[in-house]
Amino acid sequence: MIQTASTETRSVAGADLFVEYDGQPSQLADSLNKLIDSRLSISTISNRGTQVWPTGSLFTNCVDQYRVRLEAQNGVNVDPADLFELCKKINPEIRICSIEMLLEIDGKKAYSLAQGQ
Length: 117
Fold this sequence. Notes:
By secondary structure, the chain is an alpha+beta fold. It has two helices and six strands; from the N terminus they run βαβββαββ.
């Protein structure tokens, strides 16, 4: 069996929320920004792999499934329980499909950057 080398530090740097939402990306961002505390911020929202917020083309044909990338501010370690609490606060009109934690291992990002980052 191949074993992964042990790491010194592991931390959660944020999360990707995969959601179903019928509105526009700016409306989704506004709804979520009202619930997010100062430790997190929305860095990007994408639809079918194309960035649609904070910038994006008006010609992008969006479907009702978005990925919202939440990232910690100032290197704060995010408690996964806080992310789950945020999910409980989200309005029923934003249906959460999946959550993917963004990990940092030994201070290095262990996740890929989104388009436009």
